[in-house]
Design goal:
The chain is an alpha+beta fold. Helices cover about 25% and strands about 25% of the residues. It contains 3 helices and 7 strands, in the order βααββαββββ. Strands 1-2-3-5-4 form a 5-stranded antiparallel β-sheet, covered by helices on one side. Helix 2 runs antiparallel to helix 3.
């Protein structure tokens, strides 16, 4: 028996500038992915829900406005994008103190997503993550901008440790392993 990967799928919707709308958006993403009946490992949709809430809450709370959410399936993984129009300063992963009441959202995304990042747009930014059966070779560094971001005007390059980005240390994203020398 041959396994067929479900065809590409996508859904976009607007999340209002109200933190109370985050749970509805999270549930909508999860319900959509469940309805798509994708070949995902147990627990993937629950992880998707958690990361979706974190990314959308960041967009709503830190910008004071809503965001455009797009969830898609490309045949190998689920990708969620949250686009806002509040400046192009990209979020940075930073350790949160033990007593901090916030600041752990990107730590969760970094730890649970197969890949994630951010890219500037002409009127703001997009924060994205991928989850599911995305292919990733641990011996190869992941770019700060994914190959799939190149079609959105991103560039693939190493970032310096001082540039805004997604947890970049020594030129490599914090969630990857530098190449062997």
């Amino acid at each position: 028996m041959t396994f067929r990967t479900p065809a590409s799928k996508s859904l976009s919707f607007r999340v209002p500038a109200d933190v109370g709308s985050v749970p509805f958006a999270r549930r909508r993403v999860a319900a959509t992915v469940r309805d798509w009946d994708l070949p995902l490992v147990d627990g993937t949709v629950e992880t998707l829900e958690l990361l979706t809430a974190e990314v959308i809450a960041n967009a709503v709370v830190h910008t004071g406005e809503g965001c455009q959410v797009t969830v898609s399936w490309n045949g190998t993984c689920v990708r969620l994008e949250a686009a806002d129009t509040e400046g192009s300063l990209l979020p940075q992963w930073a350790p949160a103190g033990l007593d901090a009441e916030s600041g752990r959202g990107l730590q969760l995304v970094d730890g649970l997503a197969q890949r994630w990042g951010a890219r500037p747009t002409s009127d703001g930014k997009v924060v994205w993550f991928e989850i599911g059966s995305c292919l990733h070779l641990p011996s190869r560094p992941r770019p700060a901008v994914s190959d799939s971001d190149l079609t959105y005007g991103g560039t693939q390059r190493r970032l310096s440790a001082t540039e805004p980005g997604c947890g970049v240390h020594g030129g490599f994203p914090a969630h990857s392993t530098p190449p062997d020398h």
